[in-house]
Design brief:
Helix content is 44%, strand content 19%. It has 124 residues and is of the alpha/beta class. Strand 4, helix 4 and strand 5 (103-106) form a beta-alpha-beta unit. The chain starts with a strand and ends with a helix.
C-alpha cells in the first residue's frame, strides 16, 4: 500500500509539478489549494495522510496556521510536515519549525531534493 502525501499550495504549477514527481515515485497524492482546503480535505479522508508538504503564503489559511492546527489534532500531532516555500529568510524558517514543521525547503527546488527529504522524514 502506497503512502499518502498531502500537497498544500496555491500555485497550480507547483501542485502539478510536485504531484507528478510523487506519483511517479509511487506515492498516493492528495492536493489542496490553501490551508482551509487542506483541513476540509483531510477531514473527509478514510485514512490519515502520512506526510504533509505545505507552502506558507496562501489565502484563507496560511501554512503556519495550518501546521499549528494539524499539531493540535491528535491524528496529525506526529505526522511529518515539510514546508516548501519561496521565503528564504531565517526568521521564516525558525517560525515554521517553531510551529511544528519537520523540515523546510526553499523554492526553487530539485525534485530529487524533495524526494530525499520525504524519504528521510518517512524513514525509508
Amino acid at each position: 500500500m502506497s503512502q499518502k502525501i498531502l500537497i498544500v499550495d496555491d500555485s497550480p504549477t507547483i501542485v502539478k509539478f510536485v504531484s507528478f514527481s510523487l506519483k511517479n515515485s509511487g506515492f498516493e497524492v492528495v492536493t489542496a489549494s490553501d490551508g482551509m482546503d487542506a483541513i476540509e480535505k483531510i477531514s473527509r479522508l478514510s485514512s490519515p495522510v502520512d506526510l504533509v508538504i505545505t507552502d506558507l503564503n496562501m489565502p484563507n489559511l496560511d501554512g503556519y496556521s495550518l501546521i499549528d492546527t494539524l499539531r493540535k489534532n491528535e491524528t496529525y500531532r506526529d505526522t511529518p510536515i515539510i514546508i516548501l516555500s519561496s521565503e528564504e529568510g531565517e526568521d521564516d524558517r525558525e517560525r515554521g519549525l517553531a510551529v511544528g514543521a519537520s523540515s523546510y525547503l526553499v523554492k526553487p527546488f530539485k525534485s530529487s531534493r524533495l524526494l530525499d527529504e520525504i524519504a528521510r522524514q518517512l524513514h525509508q
